[in-house]
Design goal:
heterotrimer; A: 514 residues; alpha/beta; Rossmann fold; 19 helices; 25% strand; C: 369 residues; 12 helices; 12 strands
């Protein structure tokens, strides 16, 4: 499937022609071509693993392409480092900010670019100029650690502009933002565009792409499959281009909620090492067959809530009851053995032993139960057989169960974790961002598994940054803000915009939640 | 990945490391004006029967030391206190055995247990400090080493007897000695009876590590502490247990020689074994078999280096250079090979998926 | 992955560091030692081609280059090569050895055909008594040696070459007492054990014989670690500096190579402070800048012990059992190099010397603690 459209007029700022890049055994990019005109926003979309990041790293000089050509402002270039790229006016804003928290905005911006305007007044003047020109509203002397996420992102953009870039690559800039912040970002981007800067915007949030981009290039399996104009496509069209198949949707069917309370959290309070409250008086219940979705901007207590339920973090006050049994004094192991499945937020750090083979990862978290162990002994045969079952049932793409977890792609790692946590008849599943960074195919499969388990009477605590996922899967949604559960919404009626307001606290002043 | 390729990769790292060590040692020898040819001639001489026995005896001791270190390393606990633990333990064991509270073999068994308990207790101090106060075990075990050495020297002075120019604990009654056994036919030198402790400890380590829940939790903690915590492993308890276990094994280090040769703890006890054990564990990648190979290599080098000064006029200390370079290059070589291997594995996964995709496309 | 790599790298770095620590003293000493050792081997053992006795010298930790104990043994070896047409070999000890290692060294020497083998240092006692029965035609000498066997039965081919270090130390103790202006002297021992305690006991007795009111600071560098005790000039310097700062103006050492630190300390302490050497006449080997501070040395004729042992073997009359070199036999003495001791003091010391030889003064060999 390929479309050609009349592109907006203007000088070519970036032209990629038949770019190919192979890593040992993996073709990350092949035959990628697209052109970006000066003063436009060009979006690059594709599911995870489609090769977006590799492509942008090639453009930013981190990787060298194995084949193909790059032209910047009609000049053929070959970057061997990001320094080369910056020298040609290409800058990149990474998804994970690269800022030193304990330095000021000025220091962060100047760091590594001391030669441009020095480190004193000239630098301050330049930062002031850029900040005013684009409406960044940044105080050069403020410490970065005191800044919010949106402001930090603006510091990152400022850094790139300060270094003289006019072609700016933004890698999933909205992933960390709430809807209101996204709007602010887009305002900044439009300002940048008006000043003649060229923006390459990487995302997989199709609505946003349609809202901001002048042109959209879709990548699939490492290659560019189409370049389209936003006015001519719907987000559904884009998604089909990305996946090349029918789209899954996360909507649940009829309610399966029963009257059996599985998880009852009452007055849960958690403090950090310095006594600052992280969770305050949190109460909620989940019944068998119910999915409770927790919406919230990251860092508002989701991690603490999950870890308190799992027993990883000590609760200061409150009780947690699982199917009538008080868990408060139980350790993590006992809680898990009692039937709490756990899909952690960061699967690589909390859910897997990356260097251990898959079958040993089957044992992880289940080391006290059959089929992983018998008494004090590990049941290698049982664990291996069950790992094989998970690989088959959950369609984990791996050469075998002796392969190290590290070798698997993110989606397959996550499918394995889901399979593991669904085994052993759990009564409660705590799922943190279960489909984050997972490709569309795996995402659909994971949703299906959660739905199937819910039908069988599983209680699910679902924490997600993906509001569509929350709305589609949950039976009810609570919003967490600064350690408190502040609102309760019916997923049948709520809109992402309403959730966004509640997540940022805007609703506290304007409207009462339903 | 084929079995053959796996085998080649497994061998590549150590072979690479030894080539590097040989080259560096030769270069150092050339630099100091000594003859590498003579060095290698001495080093590669086929050892006599007696030397083989000594080598195996020393290897058994080093093995125990390497094992003690490896237990900690397996969960990223850097117990460098094996030296102090084994000194305290050997002293305690010798002291207990010398009192002859129990008859014969019972005394032997009890004394070994006392030594293990003393080693475990000494290591346990570092474990408790780490768990309750967050004191890095690196710091505490270094300090405990210093304290152990002084404490034992002090106590020895208090309870020991002067024998010639040395001070020793009461000699262990001969009915509690453990006889050696012949390793090389026709050779009078014998293997320490308690050298078998190394085999027992090695097998025990392998079984516990690979076949038990405890071993799994220990390895899981080593792979990823955060994943272990999330999986219900009580990491603090594991830290304490593995320190205790490490110390108990360290307590065995002195036993073969104590019951096989010296029969008392004296002020001329062999020192530094605990530190060499760290290198041996590194060389053996903390695996039961690997440590055995590492211990044999170290013992071989030490033994073969002995006549260097006499026959080749080269200071035997050059062998420390060889040992050091071997360890360093093994660490580097393994890292290189393991990266290469994980890349191979990733590409195998990718290739499998690619083939599947092609298949699907053809089908469609 | 990166974390693990860093852990492993850190581990190996530390392991090497520790391995360095464990043998630090000796490799440190080894570099100094082997430099002179290399030269020495070329001078004496490598060029020696006589048909006299075949002498094997097995050093203690430190080896040649300590300007003290081991060097003195080497001097005896040199004398034997010159006067007896001996051929020889030297072998160094590593740090923290076991008896098995020392036995190995002795066997290597015996197997290589050396028939007069000297273990330099009492640590060879156990090893020699284990090895000697296997080589009935080879003669073993142990400097400062003792019979470690329960039966105390002498072996016909083993000689324990002992020195009445307490007697020599008495004389330098007297010298110290007669020299001190502050009535405050010091003693710096290597390893706190019976051997070095004999030096201290004699020294203290000598000081007190002259003036029982003199204050004596005694300090040992280590309880049991020979490397820290005898191979540790830095530690020696620190300890000695402490004594000078504390008011002592004469310090005697029995600490092997660590004593070199004492000489650094006395030089730093300046005029009016003195150091007393041990084993060899250390004035002769000291740095010229430090010579003016070396009052005297307690001479322990290890060289004589080695030479006479070799000579005995050569002449078919190998010594066995305990052979003790005392003041009477000239095995210990004090040095007057540098002429810092006045004629008056010398006559007083010689007077004590005579009384010891006569038996009028009995010098204790053990400290009274």
């Amino acid at each position: 499937m390929s479309r050609t459209t009349a592109a907006p007029a203007g000088r070519l700022a970036v032209s990629l022609h038949r770019i190919g890049k192979r890593f040992p055994g993996v073709v990350a990019n092949h035959d990628v071509s697209f052109e970006v005109r000066q003063g436009t926003v060009h979006a690059l979309v594709g599911e995870n693993g489609a090769g977006k990041s590799t492509l942008m790293k090639i453009l930013y000089g981190v990787h060298k392409p194995d084949e193909g050509t790059i032209e910047i402002n009609a000049e053929r270039v070959s970057f061997s480092s990001p320094t080369d790229a910056i020298g040609h006016g290409v800058g990149m804003v990474f998804q994970h900010f690269q800022l030193a928290d304990n330095l000021t905005v000025l220091e962060n911006v100047v760091l590594g670019a001391e030669k441009r305007h020095g480190i004193a007044d000239a630098a301050r003047a330049e930062i002031g100029r850029i900040s005013t020109a684009y409406g960044f509203e940044l105080d050069p002397d403020e410490l970065v650690e005191t800044l919010g996420v949106g402001e930090r992102q603006r510091v990152e953009i400022l850094k790139v502009l300060y270094r003289g870039a006019s072609i700016i690559i933004l890698d999933e800039p909205t992933a960390v933002l709430v809807p209101q912040e996204v709007e602010a970002l887009f305002a900044n981007l439009r300002e940048l565009k008006r000043e003649g800067n060229t923006l390459i915007f990487i995302s997989h949030k199709l609505d946003e792409v349609l809202a901001i981009a002048d042109e959209i290039t879709v990548l699939r399996r490492g290659t560019s499959v189409a370049t389209v104009l936003p006015g001519e496509v719907t987000s559904h069209d884009l998604a089909e281009l990305m996946v090349g198949a029918e789209l899954p949707s996360p909507s649940t069917e009829e309610s399966t909620v029963t009257d059996d309370v599985i998880l009852d959290v009452a007055g849960l309070t958690v403090s950090d090492a310095h006594g600052r409250p992280e969770l305050a008086d949190v109460s909620c219940t989940i019944r068998a067959g119910e999915v409770l979705g927790i919406a919230g901007v990251e860092g508002n207590g989701q991690t603490e809530l999950v870890e308190a339920i799992l027993g990883i973090r000590k609760a200061l006050a409150g009780t947690i009851t699982l199917a009538g049994a008080d868990l408060s004094t139980w350790g993590t192991r006992r809680r898990r053995a009692a039937g709490v499945g756990y899909i952690p937020e960061d699967r690589q750090r909390h859910g897997l032993l990356l260097d251990a083979p898959l079958w040993e990862n089957r044992v992880l978290g289940h080391q006290t139960r059959a089929p992983s162990s018998r008494g004090i002994w590990l049941d290698r045969r049982g664990a291996r057989a069950d790992a094989q079952r998970i690989v088959t049932d959950y369609d984990v793409r791996t050469p075998g169960i002796d392969t190290a977890a590290r070798a698997l792609s993110g989606g397959n790692q996550q499918k394995f974790i889901v399979g593991r946590e669904m085994s052993g008849e759990p009564v409660l599943l705590v799922a943190s961002h279960p489909t984050r960074g997972v490709d569309v195919g795996a995402q659909a499969a994971i949703w299906d598994h959660i739905r199937a388990a819910r039908r069988r009477g599983l209680a699910v605590l679902l924490i997600s940054a993906d509001l569509d996922e929350l709305i589609g899967l949950s039976d009810s949604i609570r919003v967490i803000l600064r350690g408190r559960l502040v609102g309760e919404f019916d997923p049948q009626t709520v809109t992402p915009q309403q959730l966004g307001s509640a997540m940022t606290g805007a609703s506290e002043r304007t409207e009462e939640p339903v | 990945m084929t079995a053959l390729r796996r085998g080649v990769l497994a061998l590549a790292a150590p072979v690479l490391a030894f080539v590097v060590a040989a080259v560096v040692t030769s270069v150092v020898l050339l630099g100091t004006g000594d003859s590498p040819a003579e060095f290698w001639q001495v080093l590669l001489t086929v050892p006599a029967g007696r030397n083989i026995v000594n080598m195996v005896n020393f290897a058994a001791i080093l093995y125990l030391s390497g094992l003690a270190a490896a237990i900690g390393f397996r969960m990223n606990l850097f117990n460098i206190g094996v030296e102090g633990q084994y000194r305290v333990a050997t002293f305690a064991g010798a002291l207990f055995a010398g009192q002859a509270f129990l008859p014969g073999a019972l005394n032997t068994v009890a004394s070994v247990l006392v030594a293990m308990a003393a080693g475990a207790a000494w290591a346990g101090i570092a474990g408790v400090l780490r768990v309750t106060r967050g004191v890095s075990e690196v710091i505490s075990t270094i300090m405990l080493n210093a304290i152990a050495l002084s404490l034992v020297a002090y106590l020895l002075r208090r309870v020991g007897n002067r024998i010639g120019q040395t001070i020793e604990t009461d000699e262990i009654p001969s009915n509690a000695w453990v006889p050696g056994f012949s390793l090389v036919p026709g050779e009078t030198a014998e293997l320490y009876g308690l050298a078998l402790l190394a085999v027992v400890a090695g097998v025990g380590f392998a079984v516990v590590l690979n076949r038990t829940r405890f071993g799994f939790e220990l390895r899981a903690t080593g792979y990823s502490e955060s994943a272990a915590i999330a999986s219900g492993v009580d990491v603090k308890r594991m830290v304490l247990y593995s320190m205790l276990l490490s110390g108990a094994v360290a307590g065995l280090i002195g036993m073969p020689e104590l019951f096989g040769a010296s029969h008392a703890y004296g002020s001329t006890i062999q020192t530094g074994i605990g530190f060499t054990g760290i290198a041996v564990a590194l060389l053996g990648r903390n695996t039961p078999l690997g440590i055995a190979v590492g211990a044999l290599i170290f013992a071989y080098l030490a033994q073969q280096a002995s006549p260097l000064g006499i026959t080749a006029g080269i200071s035997p200390e050059i062998i420390l250079v060889t040992q050091g370079v071997v360890v360093l290059s093994v660490v580097i070589a393994y890292e290189v090979v393991s990266r290469y291997r994980s890349r191979l594995e990733q590409s195998a996964v990718a290739a499998a998926l690619e083939a599947e995709r092609r298949h699907e496309e053809v089908a469609a | 992955m990166r974390l693990r790599a860093r852990f492993v790298a850190g581990l190996s770095a530390t392991a090497l560091l520790l391995a360095g620590c464990a043998s630090g003293g000796s490799s440190d000493g080894g570099s100094e030692g082997s430099a002179s050792d290399g030269a020495a081997s070329q001078d004496v053992c490598e060029s020696a081609e006589g048909d006299g006795p075949k002498i094997g010298l097995a050093y203690d930790v430190g080896g040649v280059g300590d300007f003290s104990f081991n060097d003195s043994a080497y001097a005896g070896l040199t004398q034997a090569v010159k006067e007896l047409d001996a051929t020889c070999a030297e072998a160094e000890a590593g740090a923290g050895e076991s008896d098995a290692d020392r036995e190995q060294r002795l066997r290597d020497l015996a197997d290589a055909g050396y028939t007069a083998i000297v273990g330099v240092g009492f640590v060879y006692s156990v090893a020699v008594y284990n090895v000697a029965p296997e080589y009935p035609d080879t003669y073993f000498g142990i400097i400062d040696g003792f019979n470690p066997t329960k039966s105390q039965k002498d072996l016909p081919n083993v000689a324990n070459i002992g020195f009445a270090a307490n007697e020599g130390s008495f004389l330098v103790g007297a010298a110290a007492a007669l020299t001190t202006k502050t009535d405050h002297v010091g003693f710096l021992g290597g390893v706190d054990g019976p051997l070095i305690q004999a030096f201290e006991a004699g020294y203290v007795a000598g000081v007190e014989e002259v003036n029982p009111d003199i204050e004596i600071d005694s300090q040992y560098l280590s309880q049991d670690d020979p490397v820290k005790g005898f191979e540790n000039p830095a530690g020696g310097k620190t300890a000695a500096t402490g004594m000078y700062d504390n008011g002592a103006d004469v310090v005697y050492h029995a600490a092997g190579k660590s004593g070199l630190g004492l000489f650094d300390a006395v030089e730093a302490a300046g005029k009016g402070n003195w150091a007393i050497g041990v084993d060899s006449d250390q004035y002769l080997t000291a740095d010229p800048a430090q010579q003016p501070f070396i009052l005297t040395s307690m001479i322990k004729r290890v060289d004589t012990g080695v030479f006479e042992f070799a000579k005995g073997v050569d002449e078919g009359q190998p010594p066995s059992g305990y052979v003790t070199y005392d003041l009477a036999s000239g095995g210990v003495d004090y040095a007057t190099s540098g002429d810092f001791l006045s004629a008056e003091i010398i006559s007083q010391i010689d007077d004590y010397k005579q009384q010891i030889i006569d038996g009028t003064i009995k010098v204790p060999a053990e400290t009274t603690s």
